[in-house]
Amino acid sequence: MIIESKRVERNSLTWILRCPTKNDATELSKLRIEIDGETENLDRESGEGLLTPEDFEKLIYEDSVAVKNVFLVAEIDGKIVGFARCEGSKLSRFRHKAEFGICILKGYWGHGIGKVMIENILLCASTAGIKKISLTVVQTNAKAIQLYKKYGFVEEGLLINDRIHKDGNYYNTVIMGKILDN
Predict the structure, then answer these.
(1) pTM (2 decimals)?
(2) Nearest by Cα to 73 from 38, 29, 135, 131
(3) Measured in whole angstroms, how far is the alpha carbon of residue 157 from the centre of its chain?
(4) How far apart are CA 98 and CA 135, in angstroms?
(5) Alpha carbons within 13 A on the beta-carbon side of 56
(6) Are the C-beta atoms of residues 133 and 12 closer than 8 Å to each other?
(7) How far apart, in whole angstroms, are the C-alpha atoms of residue 156 and residue 174?
(8) Tens-digit pLDDT profile for residues 130-165
(9) Using CB atoms within 10 A of its CB, is residue 23 exposed (0-12), middle (13-18) or buried (19+)?
(10) Measured between alpha carbons, how far is residue 8 from residues 3, 16, 51, 76, 86 in Å?
(11) Shortest CA distance to 172 belongs to which of 136, 138, 148?
(12) Domains of the chain from N-terminus onward
């Protein structure tokens, strides 16, 4: 799915919300590694699960033609500072569902980029006929959990000792979901 680009002015920051093009693939590949290295909140450490520029080109194309997928980027002054993807299930029994995730450079946290991305992901999912959208988040990421709850997500489950971080400690993963009215 492709959405129209939007100029966003929020919290003294002006940026563009848009779908990526194949010309963004190299930048997205590098950005993902950078963001993964900035926080323990994501599933990967920097360089793990590497997506090459070619992998991103394929994702960008597939998401642009898929009815239940959307790929969004946040661009400030010509630089991508975050992205979000929503992917609908291809399995028949789960065709009513989609999963999504967001990652934003740490220097841009707190500027409302995540909020705008969530709002647009939810709008696209609803438009595409998705009935349920879900995500996972590390339990210690209280700000993200509160943000998701603000948008109507509820905690549906907890995966105990689901992940291990660099500090050697185990952490729980919260499963969250939202039923969409469409």
Answers:
(1) 0.91
(2) 29
(3) 20
(4) 9
(5) 25
(6) no
(7) 8
(8) 999 999 999 999 999 999 999 999 999 999 999 999
(9) exposed
(10) 14, 6, 28, 10, 20
(11) 138
(12) 6-130 (3.40.630.30)
